[in-house]
Amino acid sequence: MSGLALAIWAVTLVIVAVVIVPLALSLLGRALTAARNIEGYMQDMLTAGVGIAGNTAAIPALDTTLATTAAMAPVAQGIAETAAAAEAFVAGGKGA
């Protein structure tokens, strides 16, 4: 090898050692920090998701409630009619 080739090789190694390696380590450190932050956010999301699932577990029971309410409508109508008849009876008895 010639002296010029050795000088170019030495300068290239110095540039790699002084610039490229620290830059690569810095970028890898940032990537690791971002990955750890994402992992923490995912843990928070899992906790929130489990809480939401627990809080919304009773929603299917609303279908049963709605069906029961529909079945109670005629009973409520009967109660209203009976109450109206009783009110009319009491009002008619007081007027006599």
Please provide a brief summary of the model.
The chain is 92% helix and 0% strand. It contains two helices and no strands.
Plain-language structure description:
The protein has about 100 residues and is mainly alpha-helical. The protein folds into two domains: about 1-55; about 60-95. The protein has helices spanning about 5-55, 60-95.
What does the radius of gyration come to?
Answer: 40 Å
Overall 3D geometry?
Answer: rod-shaped
Tally the helices: 2
Give the averaged pLDDT, no decimals: 91
Poorly predicted runs: none
From the structure provided, what is the oligomeric state, counting identical versus distinct chains?
single chain
Number of domains: 2
Overall structural class, as computed from helix and strand content, comes to: mainly alpha
Order of helices and strands: HH
Strand content: under 5%
* Largest β-sheet summary: none
Q: Span from first to last CA?
A: 132 Å
Number of strands: 0
Question: Key terms for this structure?
Answer:
96 residues, mainly alpha, 92% helix, rod-shaped
Give the helices and strands, then pairings.
Layout: H1 3-55, H2 61-95
